[in-house]
Amino acid sequence: MCHEDVMLMMEETELPFAYDHFAEGESVDPPFICFLFPGSENFAADDSVYAEFSELDVELYTDKKDPELEDMVEAVLDRHEVYWDKSEVWIESERLYEVLYQMTV
To answer: Is the pLDDT confidence value at 95 over 90?
Structure first.
């Protein structure tokens, strides 16, 4: 799954989204999504990369817990047959919840 594929998938959420972060002065009110490719998990064979896989993080930010919104994001990921793991944290300094979906694509 390439950057363009993820962009199209994020559009399906109908939420504002950006790669990594919104530029200064372009931030939006929650809920919103940021996504990034923080690394890779390539498969090696014969001392070279045999298959390339990227780590993908999709971060959902909300100002209150919203299980229905999480279900909607998860439905989009499921439609694209992406296996994901989920975690959540309260970011006190931002006063936001971050629901993190981590996957390898």
So the answer is: yes
The answer to whether residues 82 and 74 touch, using CB atoms and an 8 Å cutoff, is no
Overall number of domains in the chain = 1
Evaluate whether 9 touches 15 at the Cβ level (below 8 Å).
no
Residue 70: domain span = 3-104
Report the share of the chain in percent with pLDDT over 90: 86
Return the CATH number at 67.
3.30.2000.30
Average pLDDT on 76-86 reads: 97
pLDDT class of 30 with cuts at 50, 70, 90 = very high
Could you tell me the CA-to-CA distances from 25 to 7, 11, 28, 59, 74 in Å, in that order? 21, 21, 9, 20, 29
Structure tokens at 58: 């999709």
Tell me, what DSSP letter sits at residue 97? E
Q: In what order do the strands lie in the sheet with 96-104?
A: 17-19, 32-40, 54-62, 96-104, 84-91
